[in-house]
Amino acid sequence: MNKKRPVNLDLTTIKQPLPAISSILHRVTGVALFVGLVFMMYALDQSLTSEESFNSISATMQHSFFAKLIAWGLLTALFYHLCAGIKHLLQDFGYCEELESGHLAAKVTLAAGVVFSLLMGIWVW
Amino acid sequence: MVTAVTSFGRSGLYDWMMQRITAVVLAAYTLLIVGYLITTPDLTYAQWSGFFGHTWVRVFSLLTLLSIGAHSWIGLWQVSTDYIKQTGLRFVFQAVCGTLMFVYVVWGIQVIWGL
Q1: Domains of chain A: which residue ranges?
Q2: How far is CA A32 from the centre of its chain?
Q3: Which CATH class is domain B11-113?
Q4: Which residues of chain A have pLDDT under 50?
Q5: What number of other Cβ atoms are within 10 A of residue B20's Cβ?
Q6: Closest-approach residue (CA) in chain A for B21
Q7: ipTM for the complex?
Q8: pTM value?
Q9: Residues A117, A77, A75, CA angle at the centre, nearest 5°?
Q10: Distance CA A105, CA B11 (A)
Q11: Regarding the domain delimited by A18-124, which CATH topology (the fold level of the hierarchy) does it fall under?
Q12: Nearest chain B CA: its distance from A82 CA (Å)
């Protein structure tokens, strides 16, 4: 192989195909969920410690815009990650691996992510 | 080149399988908790702590905590070995992630089983 052939790794000049976008979002949401777990664990802890702390955390969830924003963000990441995981499992079993079907699977995954995000937004607010 | 010494099961195939099994556990738990919260809009402390008082919910929660530990280790290991090329920096990143995972698991056990 000719080692001198031109290589372009400048991401800003490469048009990412949809499966690449759905894949990188799977990773981004995974990392975000790991960090966001601090908030989920805190909320779970508060909700189970005592009745007062339960009432206080549910009041926060009902009145704080910031808390709602975090909850919505994490739920969006969670459901996108879940959908992308299902896509990944299907592809492990050999489905949607061709150019056209792979493209369609990425499209469906991204669309499902948007739909879940909207539904979770409605639920949280 | 990245060697597999820091991978979860020291074997790519084992990690691959673990990632999928833990993913199914996490998906099932997500649907259970979100489903419970959606179908119980006016949740009270008595209902909520009663729910987590069931042995099966506690066992499922413990399984989920352990799955989070394994799943996030394999995932963050993959991401860090892909993007952090410098060994020292990658080691520090993985050490911080590993510590945080351990904290999550211990904290979670305390919350779920310390009721």
Answers
A1: 18-124
A2: 8
A3: mainly alpha
A4: none
A5: 15
A6: A89
A7: 0.91
A8: 0.91
A9: 60
A10: 29
A11: 3 helical TM bundles of succinate and fumarate reductases (1.20.1300)
A12: 7
Q: What is the per-residue pLDDT across A23-37, written as a single tens digit (0 to 9) for each?
A: 999 999 999 999 999
Token pair recorded at residue A53: 């702390």
Give the number of residues written for chain B: 115
A48 vs B20, B100, B115: nearest CB:
B115
Q: Does B30 touch chain A (CB under 8 A)?
A: yes
Tracing tokens 């299907």 back to the chain, one arrives at: A90
Output the pLDDT for position A3.
74
| Tens-digit pLDDT profile for residues B21-54 | 999 999 999 999 999 999 998 899 999 999 999 9
CA pair distance B11, B19, nearest whole angstrom? 12
Show the tokens assigned to A119.
Answer: 């539904």
Residues from chain A that touch B38, judged by Cβ atoms under 8 A, are 123
- Residue A51 forms contact with B (CB below 8 Å): yes
